[in-house]
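Re-run requested by the PI after the first attempt was lost when the workstation crashed. Everything re-entered from the original request form. Ligand of interest: magnesium ion.
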Amino acid sequence: MEFRPSLSARHTYKCLILGDSGVGKSTFLRRHATGQFEDQHVPTHGLNVHTLLLETNYQAVALEMWDIAGDSRHGGLHNGYFFFAKCAIIMFDLSVSSTAASVTRWQQRLEEICGNELPVVVCGNKAELERMCPELLFRKQDNLDYCELSARAAWNLEEPLQLLCRRLLMRKDLKLISQPVLKPVKDCDYNEAAMKEQMDSVLQKMLPPKIKASETCEPNEVGDFKRFIVLNEG
Ligand SMILES: Nc1nc2c(ncn2[C@@H]2O[C@H](COP(=O)(O)OP(=O)(O)OP(=O)(O)O)[C@@H](O)[C@H]2O)c(=O)[nH]1
Ligand SMILES: [Mg+2]
């Protein structure tokens, strides 16, 4: 018989999902909650909260996901949303450079209220699409992880949750277990090896941590010419 611990035995954490409108925040959650993929963009109004129940090789975890409207015309971001948050996902669309350029802004807003120790995964969605032109760079930061996924191709969907659970439970070898196997959307055209290679290339070229807040770095100077976007300059 499958072991299913009761909810009270789980560790429960509030997790914010931030990012520009249309990057796929609600889709990511829906995929995990129901397995379904919705083609149409129905903007979130205000926020939706949904709890994901996860089994790991250590401890059962409940992530209370706060899916917040990316478009301020649909409610915007209230400081109250951040209270008692224990972790966050900042999502962007790998095919739209403006959403990558916004990651720093979301990160700064989060840090203003929650500080810079909250575990955060910066997460590029829609990995099966053609990538935006500027090269993406990620700066090493103690509380931040980076990953890419495709909700449409059902590729790497578990990774952001696994990365967060590892940090929340402070177990580097934590793995999610008993997760449902999700299928790509019918007729979805994707190349898994290429997606993995692109994600690995961002991870391999990771920039060193910033020494001082005022420090400028070479890629950022080049970034002014839109050849690079440093995702987390917060
Ligand atoms: N090609 C592709 N499209 C995706 C993927 N994930 C989501 N989408 C599409 O992106 C659009 C926006 O998705 P949503 O999940 O509603 O975006 P959101 O970030 O919640 O947007 P707001 O609620 O407005 O902040 C929808 O049309 C989805 O079908 C993906 O992995 N690949
Ligand atoms: Mg939404």
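Saved to the shared folder this time. Helices lie at 25-34, 97-101, 103-114, 159-168, 192-204, 218-223.
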